[in-house]
Amino acid sequence: MCVSALRECFLNACGKSDPPRSPHRRLWITEILRAKRRRWGDERGVITLKKQPLRASIWIRLPLVLGMALGAACSNAGPSTPATEPSSGTEAQMPPPQVTIIPPPAASIASATVLLPSATIQPTPTVGPTVDPACVLFNANSDLLLPIVNRDSELSRDFEPPDLITPSLAYRNAYIVPIKIRQLVVEPLRKLFGAANEADLNIIAVSGYRSYEEQAVAYDKWQQRYPNRASTISAPPGHSEHQLGTAIDFSTSTMEEQYGELFHTDFFILPEGRWLYDNSAKFGFVLSYPAWAEKVTGYQWEPWHYRYVGVELAQYLVTYKMTLTEYVKQCAPTPTPQPTSLTHP
Ligand SMILES: [Zn+2]
Predict the structure, then answer these.
(1) Rounded to whole angstroms, how far apart are CA atoms 336 and 270?
(2) Residue 151 backbone phi and psi in degrees, to 5
(3) Is 275 helix (H, G, I), strand (E, B) or coil?
(4) Under a CB-based contact definition with an 8 Å cutoff, are residues 280 and 306 in contact?
(5) Which residues have a Cβ under 8 Å from the Cβ of 166 and sit 6 or more positions away?
(6) Would residue 291 count as lying in a domain?
(7) Is pLDDT above 70 for 5?
(8) How far is the CA of 265 from the centre of ligand 1 (A)?
(9) Does residue 98 fall inside a structural domain?
(10) Cβ partners under 8 Å of residue 33, min gap 6
(11) What is the rounded CA–CA span in Å between residue 15 and residue 21?
């Protein structure tokens, strides 16, 4: 039965139904079986697999025999044709084995496009010059608040701040005389006066903006009074911060009575001088010529001369006990281009 079933299967695979059995083929198969029986010693002609020590070889040889039979069947069948019509019977109803030929990929290996995981290229961070965080205030300043004006750096004759006004500020004790200052200084000065008034202090803003010509007159006056040290007391024209319109000289109403002049170094020991020294930075003002920085500024101590630089920078300079000149040199070792009205030697 096994041989018969396999034979049917092979016949179907060859594309034809069971052909008429040829007597020659039967004799040929019978001879093969007889030869097997002689070899295995089975006189009954029954192949008993259990009795054969070499039964494994049967399964090896059997396909060969069946293959030969199939070959004979196929050779008689002629050219194979596809089995399009189902055969009758249970086995015949089984669909013939379908050989699906998978076409090769359209693209050959040589022409295949190798897709690699796309690498995400991260932009290389640009390494710029290291900026001192403290210099952010310097770089952000664009209101002409930080030009260095001293013996080595001067303002041109025609330099004049664009927003000069003559404010009117008067409190019970603190007030401003009719002077010009820049508009952006008025509000900070108003707040300073208000705080000083609450502290019951007598503070007067005596001097503000001075033009190049006005500074020349003041310098000549000091030259006549103190010819040997006028250069350390007063600045020649073009070298005074007062020309910026952001510098203010403070005094008190009693100063002139006590010391014979509006400005005296003893201002520092008076309550008004001490209060300004301790509190002016809160309103954006810093002392331009401290006693401890005469070598840096080139000017004698002037405890009455303050300059507006903004609250943040003023508090920074006070905290680190630094003059504006030192700060600017730190943040801009090479003088940066200034407005055309500013000239540097
Ligand atoms: Zn001054």
Answers:
(1) 39
(2) -70, -25
(3) helix
(4) yes
(5) 178, 179, 180
(6) yes
(7) no
(8) 12
(9) no
(10) 45, 47
(11) 16
Distance 138 CA to ligand 1 centre (A): 23
How far is residue 322's CA from residue 316's CA, in Å, rounded to a whole number? 8
Enzyme catalytic residues: 302
Cα angle: 31, vertex 33, 35; to 5 degrees: 70
Both 168 and 33 in one domain: the answer is no
Please tell me the predicted confidence (pLDDT) of residue 225. 86
Host domain of residue 67: 2-76
Q: What is the structure's pLDDT at 42?
A: 45
- Tell whether pTM > 0.85: no
pLDDT digits (tens, 9 = 90+) for 167-222: 988 887 777 888 999 999 999 999 999 999 999 999 999 999 999 999 999 999 98
* Residues near ligand 1 ion, CB 5 Å cutoff: 249, 305
Same-domain check for residues 22 and 167: no
Q: What spacing in Å lies between the alpha carbon of 308 and ligand 1's midpoint?
A: 12
- Residue 51: name the closest of 43, 62, 66 by CA: 43
Could you give the dihedral angle defined by the CA atoms of residues 214, 220, 226 and 227, in that order, rounded to the nearest 10 degrees? Answer: 140
Place of tokens 């020649």: 236
Q: CA-CA distance, 174 to 272, in Å (whole number)?
A: 10
- Annotate 104-161 with DSSP letters as a single string: PPSS-TTTPPP-PPPP--PPPPP------GGGHHHHH--SS-----SSSSEE-TT---
Q: pLDDT at position 49, please?
A: 42
Residue that is last in its domain, among 28, 48, 76: 76
The tokens for 313 are 């920078």
Distance 292 CA to ligand 1 centre (A): 17
Distance 176 CA to ligand 1 centre (A): 15
Overall domain count for the chain: 2
Q: What is the mean pLDDT of residues 316-334?
A: 89
CA pair distance 78, 74, nearest whole angstrom: 7
Is 254:213 a contact under the CB 8 Å cutoff? no
- Beta carbons of 184 and 274 less than 8 angstroms apart: no
166 and 42 together in one domain: no
Output the CA 337–ligand 1 centroid distance in Å. Answer: 25
